[in-house]
Amino acid sequence: MKSPRAFGRAVVAAVACVVVLGAASLGPSSAVEAQAAPGSPQFTVLLDAGAAHDAAVAAVEAAGGHVLRENAAVGALVVEAPVAGFVERVSAAEGIFGATPARPIGGTTATRPGGAVPAASTSGAQGPPQGPTGLDPLDARLWGLSMIKADAARAQQPGDPRVQVGILDTGIDASNPDLAPSVDVALSRNFVTDIPTDPSGGELDGPCEFDGCVDPPDHDGGGHGTHVAGTVAAAANGSGLSGVAPGVTLVNIRAGQDAGLFFLQPVLDALTYGADVGLDVINMSFYVDPWRYNCTNNPADSPEAQIAQRTTIEAMNRALEYAHGKGVTLVGSLGNESEDLGRPGTDRESPNYPPGATYDRAIDNASCVDLPVEGPHVIGVSAVGPSGAKAGYSNYGTEQISVAAPGGSASAGRLEDLILSSYPQRVLQESGDVDAQGAVTPQGAAQGVQRACHGNACGYYTYLQGTSMASPHVTGVAALVVSRHGTEDPQHPGQLTLSPDVVEQAITASAAQVACPAPTAPEAGAAAPCEGDPAFNGHYGHGIVDALAALTAPTS
Predict the structure, then answer these.
(1) What is the pLDDT at residue 33?
(2) What is the CATH number of the domain that holds 546?
(3) How far apart are CA 240 and CA 234, in angstroms?
(4) pLDDT band at 519 (very low <50, low <70, confident <90, very high)
(5) 188 with 291, same domain?
(6) φ, ψ for residue 111 (rounded to 5)?
(7) Which residues pair with 448 in a beta bridge?
(8) At what angle do helices 224-233 and 467-485 cross, to 10 degrees?
(9) Same-domain status, 261 and 343
(10) How far apart are the C-alpha atoms of 273 and 17, rounded to whole Å?
(11) What is the pLDDT, as a whole number, of residue 403?
(12) Domain count, the chain
């Protein structure tokens, strides 16, 4: 059984990319007594742009490390090394940008409702209502689908299977009958290895479920990725529910552990792999750990921590630039701290690994970033509730927001105000929401868990809220835009392609503008001041994404 939180170690990725490294040389470096033993902690070592590969490897070995493999697309080496002093030793070498321990660099941003639920909110447990004509039965509960006009857009463009969408998350449960027709399992990859316990002996992933602690590419032991995938492209098959772009193809590029924590190296590998196989859109509903914000030189951090964060920033920026250059539209969630990303305050959550290591850090906006959403070319998405107002938890701010989308809001205590989507049966059974025979338990019914069968296969669905749920609505719209306007990809026969800048333009230009709330409105809140005008502001960006309008937006 998996615990609800986990972290892990990257596995080798088949990334088909080569870069030519320059002729920079490393100066002399004294050998160190400690050398890496098999099974030593792992590090990501980032080379300077143009650095000589062989000299960099020599520097790693001189610092006590052993190179396991390389992601040439971003100039990163995966290295085993003794912990003590390695980051500072290797980072001092010529040709090395920096290094960071292989610790989690992401946390998914979604929550399930807690506590008792009014009886009126559990009506789905007695059987789903019939949806509108042409939609699936549970679509009647998908207020987000209607808010962004994805139900109407489907009549014009349901999504082309030649458009491929990467879900960079905790995995996709391809056994769900709403996802099975959409997931390209052969192209999917899992870049993480489950780890049962943390360094203190506490449960992390729990006992491994598969040989080698590596889950297959059609498995999701956390649930978050499956929920995201359903919102993007659950099939319109007459059962369960459907996604924003039910006709497109989903590709699982898993970089998150079951609990929603991410390593730097798996994220780099997932992004560059997705770019190399020609994915059109990648959804990133996570934020960077162990640092809530990665800073270049925060005075509260040790020299080693500063190096690690600078390395993370540079490596992520390189990977995002690489993916954008390969034609990938990047979509990311803004996060759930109800914080203006342009005016961050005190970070009290970092570093959140290992457990108990947190301390207060004053965050300087000029030198600290929230990744990946504040990285280059990422369409940043805030969350709104069914009223169209910014959800209270959603981050905001004029610096990185692009658009808003339905993410759910439990402020009124109604499950129906959250986002319903697909969820793995096994995870629901572990939490007690589904029993061993596959029936929804009273506890699950109180949480709004739904069960729908298509032939002999049954799918399960649950409610979540978060900017994680908003981002896939935008990802689905991006996939529809590529479906409508994309052309044959010469590098990847049988696939479509469209410039990510064109896709972003179509999304932002067609969004439904929303003005800032009046200062006295409940959603305004003294803690979340809204700056800007209806055309662009900190709560909604260019507006709430509109699937129908995006299909006819200018694409020049």
Answers:
(1) 37
(2) 3.40.50.200
(3) 9
(4) confident
(5) yes
(6) -140, 155
(7) none
(8) 40
(9) yes
(10) 9
(11) 98
(12) 2
Consecutive H or E run containing 189: strand 189-190
Complete DSSP assignment for 240-305:
S---SSTTSEEEEEE-B-TTSEEEHHHHHHHHHHHHHTT-SEEEE-EE-SS-SSEESS-TTS-HHH
Amino acid code (one letter) for 46: L
The pLDDT, as a whole number, for residue 187 is 98
CB-count burial class (<10 Å; 0-12, 13-18, 19+) for 507: buried
CATH code of the domain covering residue 32: 3.30.70
Domain that holds residue 418: 108-114+142-511+542-551
On whether residue 529 sits in a domain, the answer given is no
Q: What one-letter code names the amino acid at 134? A: G
Cα 474 to chain centroid distance, Å, stands at: 13
Q: How confident is the model at residue 521 (pLDDT cuts 50, 70, 90)?
A: low
- Residue 334's identity, in one-letter code, is L
Cα separations (Å) of 212 from 83, 216, 220, 404, 435?
24, 11, 16, 41, 28
Q: What is the pLDDT of residue 39?
A: 63
Token pair 């001092």: residue: 92
Residue 331, pLDDT above cutoff 50: yes
What pLDDT shows up at residue 119?
30
Dmax of the chain from CA atoms? 73
SS3 for 454?
strand
pLDDT(113) > 70: no
Residues in CB range of 231: below 8 A, 6 or more apart: 144, 243, 244, 419, 421, 469, 472, 473, 476
Is residue 532 a contact partner of residue 402, using CB atoms and an 8 Å limit? no
Question: Does 375 share its domain with 306?
Answer: yes
CB neighbours of 240 closer than 8 A, spacing ≥ 6? 136, 137, 138, 176, 177, 178, 234, 422, 450, 452, 454, 459, 461
Residue 536 lies in a domain: no
Are 177 and 48 in a shared domain? no
Residues 149 and 27 in one domain: no
DSSP class of residue 320?
A: H
Mean pLDDT to the nearest integer, 485-499: 97
Cα(97)–Cα(105) distance, integer angstroms: 18
Same domain, 319 and 384: yes
Amino acid 523: pLDDT = 53
User: How far is it, in rounded angstroms, from Cα 396 to Cα 518?
Assistant: 16
Residue 51 is assigned to a structural domain of this protein = yes
